[in-house]
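Structure tokens please, single chain.
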Amino acid sequence: MADPPDYPGTPRWVKISGIIAIVLVLLAIVVVFTGIGGPHGPGQHLPPSSATELGMQQP
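Here you go.
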């Protein structure tokens, strides 16, 4: 009878998690470079900087 290998290999959940992570990273790269979804970010909900004059404070 042959001896079983010392290390059976990478668990299935690790392989699946890795594949999902790679797919999400590739999807994020595609979204960033194609501009799908429009402009997003912290400045999205702020008024344009030209809307206020210098020295004036926002209420």
